[in-house]
Design brief:
Layout lengths: L18 H14 L3 H10 L13
Helix pairs in contact: 1-2
Length: about 60
């Protein structure tokens, strides 16, 4: 079953969340995903991107 975007349904993670919370969520998704495609789909459902999982620049 293919996952598709539903424009009537807002993402579960709101853009206003703190960057650290978005980073932890993206890393958690990456750690439990079976493969890169599944990871990308789950991140998309949450309104996240792979960039959200990157460590902050110091």
């Amino acid at each position: 079953m293919a996952l598709t975007k539903n424009p009537a349904r807002p993402p579960l993670v709101v853009d206003g969340n703190p960057p650290e919370q978005r980073r932890r969520a993206a890393r958690t998704v990456a750690s439990v995903s079976d493969d890169p495609r599944q990871c990308a789909e789950l991140l998309d459902m949450l309104g996240l991107s792979a960039d959200d999982g990157l460590a902050p620049e110091e």
